[in-house]
Write a structure and sequence with these properties.
The protein is mainly alpha-helical. The chain is built from 12 helices and no strands. The protein folds into 2 domains: 30 residues; 209 residues, Up-down Bundle (Rhomboid-like fold). The longest helix has 28 residues. The chain starts with 35 loop residues before the first helix and ends with a helix. The relative contact order is 0.09.
């Protein structure tokens, strides 16, 4: 008696595969299981608070130095105005705000303060105009803002304005004497002298008292070399009164040591900064 063999199903030439159960070729676990999905969730959850803390730190830093950043904002507005003026218009505008010998003799209060609100576009002509705001943002953030945090608003203003006013009168006084002795050109009586550099340099000098030794001497030495070389190498017949003013601002700023000592507070120590980053590097290396 013949018995029929049981029918066997032919294999499906296109079987359906559950892709969620396949291992990832790069070592990751399948979607739906613990792995990158959870890691991404944790990373996204921790990134939000980290960004908020960074934003708050930036806000506290900026809001703690309001005079610095209000002044910077005004400079950026006047810088933008300059870009729309012709050379003649710019020359006339800046000349009426320059702390030259003629202006100091006729309207000193006006030019001493209005000169702090403008930058001379011709001083930056080799550079692209859009780079200048970034350069001043860097200078104000690295030097003026930390000094305002440390000194306080009124002391910061006192140091900067004193350096600006005294350095202006000393440099222009030396220039006036040189003109009287026929050692400098008479046309320099109406020279263009405008900008924030005397204020900035004076505050940079007093900031050296906030840096721990021996780093202080390196910082101060660099400042003296950078601003002292133009003074030494200047032409005696074309007196560089700006270089005289810069170096004078350093000396005046250093005279504020008693005021700096009153401020106290922990001094900035680059060695501690290096130590703070050291453990994180070692942890990353071990991981």
């Amino acid at each position: 008696m013949l018995v029929a063999a049981p029918e066997t199903a032919e294999p499906d030439p296109h079987p359906q595969v559950d892709l969620t159960r396949l291992p990832n070729l790069y070592g990751a676990t399948p979607r739906g299981e613990s792995g990158h999905g959870k890691l991404d969730t944790v990373a996204n959850a921790s990134a939000g608070p980290r960004l908020r803390s960074i934003g708050l730190a930036v806000w506290h830093f900026v809001s703690g130095a309001p005079l610095t950043y209000i002044w910077l904002s005004v400079l950026m507005i006047t810088w933008n105005i300059q870009q729309h003026l012709s050379h003649k218009q710019l020359h006339d505008l800046l000349l009426h705000r320059s702390t030259n010998i003629h202006a100091l003799g006729t309207d000193p209060i006006h030019v001493l303060f209005s000169s702090l609100l403008w930058l001379d576009r011709t001083d930056f002509e080799p550079f692209e105009p859009f780079l200048v705001p970034f350069a001043y943002l860097l200078l104000f953030t690295v030097f003026l803002a930390p000094a305002e945090h440390w000194l306080g608003h009124l002391r910061w203003l006192l140091v900067g304005l004193t350096c600006h006013i005294l350095a202006t009168y000393i440099s222009e006084g030396i220039l006036y004497f040189a003109i009287e002795e026929h050692s400098a050109s008479q046309r320099l009586v109406h020279s263009r002298d405008i900008g924030v550099s005397y204020f900035l340099v004076g505050v940079m000098a007093v900031l050296s008292y906030h840096i721990a030794r021996p780093w202080r001497w390196g910082y101060l030495g660099g400042l003296v070399i950078i601003l002292g070389v133009p003074l030494i190498t200047m032409d005696r017949h074309e007196l560089d009164f700006t270089s005289i003013g810069h170096f004078t601002s350093i000396l005046i700023g250093l005279c504020f040591y008693p005021l700096a000592r009153e401020c106290g507070g922990p001094q900035w120590n680059p060695a501690k900064l290096k130590a703070a980053f050291g453990p994180s590097r070692s942890r990353e290396a071990s991981a």
